[in-house]
Design goal:
- The complex is a heterodimer of chains A (about 110) and B (about 110).
- With about 110 residues, chain A is mostly beta strands.
- Chain A has no helices and eleven strands.
- Chain A is globular.
- By secondary structure, chain B is mainly β.
- Chain B has no helices and nine strands.
- In chain B, strands 1-9-8-3-4 form a five-stranded mixed β-sheet, with no helix packed on it. Chain B has a four-stranded antiparallel β-sheet with strand order 2-7-6-5, with no helix packed on it.
- In chain B, strand 5 and strand 6 form a beta hairpin.
- The mean pLDDT of chain B is about 90.
- Classes of the chains: A mainly beta (about 110), B mainly beta (about 110).
- At the A-B interface, strand 5, strand 9 and strand 10 of A face strand 4 of B.
């Protein structure tokens, strides 16, 4: 079974803190994604990566950065957390093939910024 | 990507088949239909996908109309664990833009009752 592991299920941080959300996949997938999910807005793509050290902006990259130093790990960084970044964050991965739209998701990290 | 339309919610009795409709009247010839579901407080889970032929796997069946303008996901024997939001997504399988970015709409909230 494909496993996508997010480092924390719940996280509480203060405004202005630097926050790291970690995601690890064990299927040697080329593509990795970070989404956030908010009530009424659905899932929105923040960043994605199609290879080590490669990244592309998604729909809502402002206030976020990412890092992919190893193929299996994709980190989402909130440089200075703000209350409007309180959300559920979801990491996903997929093969870089015709099956790229079959994405495997982690359980999510519910982040609260106070 | 083609837009999809799904009912907001539906109920299903445990043990009965659940038939979830999706309209995608603007689908183009190279777009696949994907189904995902999201159980409360978990990440989305891939279910099945198809191009024009009907598909079946261990989780569900996918029936696509001949004109490809609509499809139905069938859960043959619904259980309480199938209570979730079900998303129908239409997407090209291979594209050089947005590398596998999935657009999740509002989906259908399915409640399976005893």
């Amino acid at each position: 079974d494909v496993k996508v592991t997010q480092s924390s299920r719940y996280l509480v941080k203060r405004t202005g803190e630097k926050v790291f959300l970690e995601c690890v996949q064990d299927m040697d997938h080329e593509n990795m994604f970070w989404y956030r999910q908010d009530p009424g807005l659905g899932l929105r793509l923040i960043y994605f990566s199609y290879d080590v050290k490669m990244k592309e902006k998604g729909d809502i990259p402002e206030g976020y950065s990412v890092s992919r130093e190893k193929k299996e790990r994709f980190s989402l960084i909130l440089e200075s957390a703000s209350t409007n970044q309180t959300s559920m964050y979801l990491c996903a991965s997929s093969f870089d093939s015709i099956a790229k739209n079959i994405q495997y998701f982690g359980a999510g990290t519910r982040l609260s910024v106070l | 990507d083609a837009k999809t339309t799904q009912p907001t919610s539906m109920d299903c009795a445990e043990g009965r088949a659940a038939n979830l409709p999706c309209n995608h009247s603007t689908i183009s010839g190279n777009e696949y239909v994907y189904w995902y579901r999201q159980i409360h407080s978990q990440g989305p889970q891939y279910i099945i996908h198809g191009l024009k032929n009907n598909e079946t796997n261990e989780m569900a069946s996918l029936i696509i109309t001949e004109d490809r303008k609509s499809s139905t996901l069938i859960l043959p024997h619904a259980t309480l664990r199938d209570t979730a939001v079900y998303y129908c997504i239409v997407r090209v399988a291979r594209s050089t833009d947005s590398w596998g970015k999935l657009q999740f709409g509002a989906g259908t909230q399915v409640v399976v009752t005893p």
